[in-house]
Amino acid sequence: MKIVQVTPGLIQIPPNGWGAVEKVIWAYKLELEKLGHEVDIKYCAEINKGDYDIVHVHVANLAIDLAERGIPYVFSMHDHHVEVFGKFCECYQNNLEAIQKSVFSIVPSEHLIKYFENPPNLRYLPHGVDVDFFKVKDRKVSETILADHKLLCVGKNGYFNDENFDRKGFGLAMQAAEKLNLPLTVAGPKSNEAFFDSLGARYDKLNLVFDLTEEQLKEQYALHTIFLHPSIVEAGHPNLTLLEAMATGLPIVGTYTGSEFELNGILRIERDVDQIAEGIQKVIDNYSVYRNNAINNANSLTWSYVAERLCGYFCDPYNMTKEAKTFSDNHKRIYQKVLNPKKAYVDKIFVINLKDRKDRKERISSLLDKENLGVPIEIVNATDIRNLKKDEVKQWLSKNDYGLYQWKIEKEDYFFDGFDFKEWDSRELTKGEIGCALSHFLIWKKAKEENLERILVLEDDAFWKNNGDLSLAIQKVSECKAEFDLAYLGRTKITNSKEKSIDDIFNYSDFSYTTHAYIVNEKGVEKFLSQNLQSKIIPADEFFSACISEHRRVDVSTVFPKVIKAIVPKSCFIRQEGINNTKESDVSDDRIFEISFVDNPRVQISTQYVTNDSFQVDFILDDKSVYKTQLQDNTWGEVYMNRRVPWEIRAIDLRSHEVCWSHKYDDEGKKVLIWFDSKSLGDNFAWIPQVERFRKLSKARVVVATFFNNLFRKAYPKIKFIEPGATEESLYASYSIGCYDLEDKSKHSNPWNKIPLGQICSDALGIDFKEEKAKIHFKDKENRLENEKYICISTSSTSGCKHWHGWQELVDYLNSKGYKVVVIQKEPLDYMDLKGLENVIFPDTKDNIEEAIAWLYNCEFYIGLSSGVSWLAHSLGKEVIMIAGFTEPYNEFTCRRVINYNACHGCWHNHLFDKGDWKWCPEHKNTDRHFECMKTIKLKDIIEVMPMN
Predict the structure, then answer these.
(1) Residue 784: inside a domain, yes or no?
(2) 660 and 714, same structural domain?
(3) pLDDT per residue over 527-549, tens digit each?
(4) 666 counts as catalytic
(5) Helix/strand/coil (H, E, C) string of 302-347?
């Protein structure tokens, strides 16, 4: 096409200063030329009738001048003053006249269409951005650190006759910046200075820059991190500076009001200082998210996209008003379809679109614009009952004189021609399927009312890759010589049978699914309507299949006999495709809520067909919600808690607000993994009896990972033992047992240093604590000293606070009573602060626990500390004398305890142990009371509790 852009004549194009309209004109010229059009920029007086295919004017008085000279034109309205001065001002009336006399007109803000009272020839076209010029800039910014950020405003403030009016909200931005103590730059024409002068005092971190070139403006975008735009009125939504800022990676806090483009790189606020400041803080706290969204927003609104959409408007004759037709004599190349209309093969195109699927509406509208079919297009809001609760659906159907067919059937064989339909047939219809079937029915009804000879029906996920594919498909259908009522443009064949060929392009259709693209003639519409689908609703593609071929189900064939003759391309013209090549469906309900309690309670929503449905997943304990999260298909959510508690988890459909799925924790008969997160001998021996109690109480299939499996495996034959770090399949839940952060309620219901050691495990497994002795299996029971009596002792442990220093005196006493003394420990006798011992037997058991067990098994009794060997002796049924002052008696197990209650004791339960400090004594370190709890224990105290007395 030969196109002229009419210059307003005040500023050169491309602009060398501030000139938004001139920027738009220059962008149109460059992009339209890339599309192969010839584009000039001229003054209005230089244009004569018939010189150009398209005359595109941007100022109302010039548009009216063209009308008076009989020159048809396209008008773009850029004047924000139409809102500032109201509908009764001369400015508004002039622009309205320019719109009414145009072939068609464009506004860059959606709300202006309603403001001009919805003239039939007025369309919305957004501004764009040159992402090759305004490129993304890396910014070294740490999220949540306020001081890293710099704020930017760009624009010309004021109105035409009042430069002091804060139209752009610069004053509000300055107050918000001052509230957060952040630097603010305002870039614009020199006239902005008058506004700031009118304010009097200025913020000391305010920087004003004037009359920037495009290069200088781009530098300002790169130097800042957040763009502020609390404007009260704009002709463009989004306007140019918003798009430029986002293209460089700047998130925006502003008053953008557009709805066609959900720009999630903009945090929307009102013109309020507190809201602006809070918005800035929110963007900072989520900076990377808003930044990435901003970049994606800009990439979706490039000038090339805008120019393609503009060309679609140029070529669409159905935007012409009655006034415009009188100007069309010299424009036959553009308006030939109006002047000498050629009958199109289809009378009308209906597009079924769910109201909340703006993304798919935008995509298919763009595809249809590029096709330029010269056919009326009607976007039909799909019947959507997904907001109804299940018990409300029948009431809604009855109210609207609709009814359902009993779709769900129970039978032995669900196979048809190699396909298994059990999952498909043994369920009720989904709300999406009901809405889809009614949407098609209502279109047929509308086609009949409008006496349309032939219609094309597209669902909003219909997709074709190349411009012209749809036009070619319609052409091929029109050329087919066969007799038919319906032509599939795309489908899924659900049969292995060979279809009857018509020609090189088409077959007669056999059993098929999907109804995303088809042409149906007047006769086919009558036949469809004669079946009364609305009173016995089944899925739309099942209905098509019944009407076109003998249905796989006899009951459906009886209700809906074969009445339609259909053709189908051998290679589909139009396919069904979700946004970003995903498999989407707004009718399917194959969604699976997967639950796992491995590590943490986790819910994952899995589905083959992605939807835009949302669900609130609620994790509940004792009838109280402890965590809520919003999930969509193929996403997951979890709550951080690795304890066994009686969870109830619910998913609420956020459309209907009804519970669509729930699960109560129940591990009976299910596989549960318990792994000991400690190599300590005492921990393992304290915890394993609690695991066995859990197995009996829960009736779960228990799998355990310990560091002493060889001792426990045969003693607990109904528990499966695996090595630490090994994996286990098909788990319902897993729990780690250990001593974690005392404040971490997700791991411990009670602080682990204030309860018995064994209770750490029972608490994690959600059972009451009961002291029980560990069972072990061992083979070697031979007495190493034949028939001699001996007593085992252990003198060393992991910290100085456990050590007692009267061992030689004790050994001498036991020897005097005729007992030999055997020391069982890994460490040497003079370990750390201990002295060596005389007259003892010290077998090598360092790396041989079986040897230690044999010695312990045959001893008379055992004397030790709060350590693992004491737990081992206890499990062997030995009387244990435990010398321990740093813990309270409840910490270990019932034994012959030696403790001085009159001295400082029990510090373990009141202080956090420092593993790196051997001399750890939290209350008396480096005083004469250091380790008082053990120093004050005397030999006589031990002799008093010995079983030989």
Answers:
(1) no
(2) no
(3) 999 999 999 999 999 999 999 99
(4) no
(5) EHHHHHHHHHHHHCCHHHCCHHHHCCHHHCHHHHHHHHCCCCCCCC
